[in-house]
Write a structure and sequence with these properties.
By secondary structure, this protein is of the alpha/beta class. The chain has one domain: Alpha-Beta Barrel (TIM Barrel), CATH 3.20.20. Helices cover 46% and strands 10% of the residues. Helix 1 packs antiparallel against helix 12, helix 5 packs across helix 12 and helix 6 packs across helix 13. The structure holds S-adenosylmethionine (SAM) and FE2/S2 (inorganic) cluster. The site of FE2/S2 (inorganic) cluster (FES) has 8 residues, from loops. FE2/S2 (inorganic) cluster (FES) binds next to loops.
């Protein structure tokens, strides 16, 4: 199995490349592209109106207009040009930085519709309209980290902390298997209780109880030796969102002891060991700019994660970002479509956060090119304590009811929830 270690990941020197990317982004100052998409209040820009204009599709269309055309003609020229960029992305799976920038900042409802159509066409021969489920067990909300955006960060003393015992976790996995889940995801804070020995033991028990299921871990940053041990125990997928492809932005979202380079090293280690790797980022996280989003697109293009979790940032009332605006449904859907076009094979979840900011967010996610949902299998008694952001949905539903509800929701937009491991193809 370890022979995967020799696989060429195309990821060498990625940190350097992305570091350079960030420097190049700085060079674009004055274009408006570096301004925050969802700016933290009271920082940076002179007025909200300026910021909204930057992120607003209409404003950017004006920005790209030519002086010798009427506004109507300019808008239509711009739409045609951007439509051509969307087609180019579908054809070539890459764009130049300024083309990515134009496509993101010039977005309109018509362009979003076109991108979504192209995304569904790209997905069709690979996954069709089949939707894979991952049963998510939130095994602990105890975490040594203090990510500024996260509701269960160490400094939040208002959280009722819990950790699930190994036997409870295995029982949840068994229940999930009976309900038709063929991927079990164990997610949690970086809780020292789950040593390699404890976690590998849980993985082995789930692998024995559900031999036809894939086991995914999402337990944060660990050593390469630890990742290898867990892989050998039977975990074959790992979700570790990179959070942002721009090191300076990473520093704005995390305390000083958390390093972007370390996150990247973990992703490299996971891939070299042989895991299917899930990266991802929050849309509209504080300080995020259009240039950061361009860097995200480039990161996905180069690293090609097997899975990519993107969902809107949603503020949590007990964090330093409590008063920051949430990311939008509109931008999240647009980026989902772009990611599907950049990397047609990617497993792309319509996240719970997307379902939280819009009651039909997950259905809309499918229409934008997503193909995975991750309902909750955690015991109901603890779910409310795994509150990463405010108003998180599905806190009180039985797992069986959740699955039925999701199947109906997917069917309502012509998609089918399937019983399948949902491997990367
Ligand atoms: N500890 C593991 C890790 O770091 O990967 C897994 C748990 S962590 C809470 C899972 C993901 O939740 C993070 O990668 C982050 O992107 C997302 N998240 C945390 N706070 C959020 C918020 N306020 N809004 C949206 N997503 C959030
Ligand atoms: Fe550790 Fe959020 S800070 S899970």
């Amino acid at each position: 199995m370890y022979s995967h270690a020799t696989k060429d990941t195309g990821f060498s020197n990625l940190a350097d490349r992305l570091g350079n990317q960030a420097v190049r982004n700085d060079a674009t100052k004055g274009t408006g592209a570096h301004e925050p998409v969802d700016r933290p209040k009271g920082r940076a820009l002179p007025s909200d109106a300026t910021n909204r204009a930057t992120a607003s599709p209409t404003a950017i269309s004006n920005h790209t207009s030519r002086s010798n055309t009427t506004p109507g003609e300019a808008a239509s020229t711009s739409t045609t040009r951007l439509g051509a960029l969307a087609e180019k992305l579908a054809r070539e799976h890459t764009l130049a930085d300024d083309e990515y920038r134009a496509l993101i900042s010039g977005r309109t409802p018509e362009l979003a519709k076109r991108l979504a159509e192209l995304a569904r066409v790209a997905r069709e021969p690979i996954y069709g309209t089949r939707v894979f489920t991952r049963g998510l067990i939130e095994i602990s909300n105890i975490c040594k980290n203090d990510c500024l955006y996260c509701g269960i960060r160490r400094s939040n003393h208002n959280v009722k902390r819990y950790r699930l015992e190994p036997e409870t976790i295995v029982a949840c996995a068994r229940e999930g298997h009976e309900l038709g889940f063929r991927t079990i995801v164990l997610q949690g804070g970086e809780d020292g209780f789950y040593t390699d020995e404890v976690l590998a033991g849980i993985v082995e028990q789930i692998a024995a109880a559900c031999p036809d299921s894939a086991i995914t871990l999402s337990m944060g940053e660990r050593s390469r030796t630890s990742y290898k041990r867990l892989f050998d125990a039977g975990a074959t997928r790992y979700l570790l969102r990179h959070e942002t492809a721009t090191p300076q932005h990473y520093e704005q979202l995390h305390p000083a002891n958390m390093r972007w380079e370390r996150r990247m090293q973990c992703l490299r280690d996971l891939r070299e060991i042989g895991y299917q790797v899930g990266a991802g980022f929050m849309v509209g996280s504080p300080y995020q700019t259009i240039d950061h989003l361009v860097a995200e697109m480039r990161f996905i293009e180069r690293f090609k994660p097997e899975m990519c979790g993107i969902g809107p940032f949603i503020p949590h009332h007990d964090t330093p970002f409590a008063h920051e605006p949430a990311g939008t449904l509109e931008l999240t859907l647009y980026l989902l479509s772009m990611i599907r076009l950049i990397h047609p094979h990617v497993l792309l979840p319509a996240t719970t956060a997307l379902g939280t900011i819009d009651p039909r967010g997950r259905e809309k996610g499918m229409l934008a090119g997503a193909n995975v949902v991750m309902p909750n299998l955690s015991p109901i008694a603890v779910r409310k304590n795994y509150e990463l952001y405010d108003n998180k949905i599905c806190m009180g539903e039985e797992s069986a009811i959740c699955r039925g509800c999701l199947a109906r929701r997917m069917a309502s937009v012509g998609h089918e929830l399937v019983v399948d491991r949902g491997d990367f193809r």
